[in-house]
Amino acid sequence: MIIHSINPLNFRNLAHKRLEFSPGCNFITGFNGQGKTNLLEALFFILSLKTKRGSVSDNIRKGADSFEIDSSVTFGQLKHRVNFSAEGRKRKLLIDDSPIKRRREYLEQVLAVDFFPEDLLILIMEPSLRRDFIDYACVQYFLPHEDTLKRFKRTIEQRNGLLRFPDRLDQNLLDNFDSPLSEYSALIAIARLQLLSELSEKTDEIFREGIGEKYKAELNYVSSVDGIPQSIRPGESIDHTDFAGIYLSEFRKRRKQDIESGRTSAGPHRDDWSMTLNGKPVRSYASRGEVRSAMFALHLARFHVLSEKRGIKPVVLIDDVMSELDSQRRSRILELLPEGQIFLSSCDPLPETGKIADENSAHFLMEKGLARGID
Ligand SMILES: Nc1ncnc2c1ncn2[C@@H]1O[C@H](COP(=O)(O)OP(=O)(O)OP(=O)(O)O)[C@@H](O)[C@H]1O
Ligand SMILES: [Mg+2]
Question: Going by fewer Cβ within 10 Å, which terminus of the chain is more open, N or C?
């Protein structure tokens, strides 16, 4: 997969000008507030139809009422024109000038692995960030999982809607929700556990052997429900019926408590996962540099696991996360960057060695939303 060029129109502060990229490394430098992150966001958007910061309409340049990204992308062996526009609530995706109704048909064929500065908070801040991270990775791993997440969300909102009015509560109606809810819960927990087991092995390998860190990195599931394991072996199959049964009995056990509090107190929406280094949580144990290093290992692991599963080489987008890393870690991480197309932004000048600096790479200076090619 390669993004050959992009031409944004009214996308945040980016200039309306076609930018041509290298199929290898693309390095974007520039002062703060010039548009480096905006460019990486535009690239992420065109490959995921999802925005990193805020809603889709937050991407519209202040004062404008629509945005458009026109791009040239190779996927499925062929070069395509991909054009996305948003105006008010209207969204339009054109592939080779024809409208696409099912966005999944397109998303099946493209893939981006993104590492933005806010991802550094995932390991240390609130559980919802970790749930969002693992759920999106599960969707990238298996796109139909998106439907399971939507159904779960809708069902739990309906269940909570009933719980909020205990005086009018019909227990039979609640029974009708608990059964599908436990089915979706099982699917979500199984997907998370399976992906975490694959990511855990790969992250540890990259963290210790690749970057040269000394601690063993492990990812574990932390469920709000007894009986859901912390981890499984990669490839281990899980009986969906067992898991659904565990969730169903938990929903029943907690029914009185849930009616009192007006919300569903356990389930995948309350579950969490953690990364530990030598058994100690990253959150309370690791230095700032080690958190960055651990996150790099996790994102690179995500790259390898996803490219193997999907049979697509993802485009890698790394936005300004190299600072605070010492020179040894920085150069080892640069060496670990996978083959394929990479976009890397930084306020710092271009590294002097490595594939970012080689003759196949392209270098840009971003100023006031306009990226200029530099030598
Ligand atoms: N919808 C929008 N319309 C117009 N300008 C916007 C919009 N959203 C963000 N901006 C502006 O875009 C500018 C560039 O933001 P961006 O985050 O890309 O900078 P950056 O080069 O990554 O800076 P840093 O090095 O600090 O991360 C900011 O000044 C911001 O205010
Ligand atoms: Mg930025």
Answer: C
- Residue 299, C-beta contacts closer than 8 angstroms, at least 6 positions apart: 113, 115, 119
Same domain, 156 and 83: no
Six-digit token string for 172: 């039979």
346 C-alpha vs ligand 2 centroid, how far in Å? 8
CATH of the domain at 53: 3.40.50.300
Instruction: Please write the tens of the pLDDT for every residue from 25-83.
Output: 999 999 999 999 999 999 999 999 999 888 999 999 999 999 999 999 999 999 999 99
Note whether residue 239 is domain-resident: yes
| CATH number of the domain residue 186 falls in | 1.20.1050.90
Instruction: Name the residue with the closest Cα to ligand 1, atom 31.
Output: 33
pTM of the model: 0.95
Out of 9, 10, 11, 13, give the residue to mutate to test ligand 1, the one with the largest number of ligand atoms within 8 Å of its CB.
13
- From 234, 264, 284, the end of a domain falls on 284
With a cut of 90, say whether residue 206 has pLDDT above it.
yes
Q: How far apart are CA 149 and CA 141, in angstroms?
A: 14
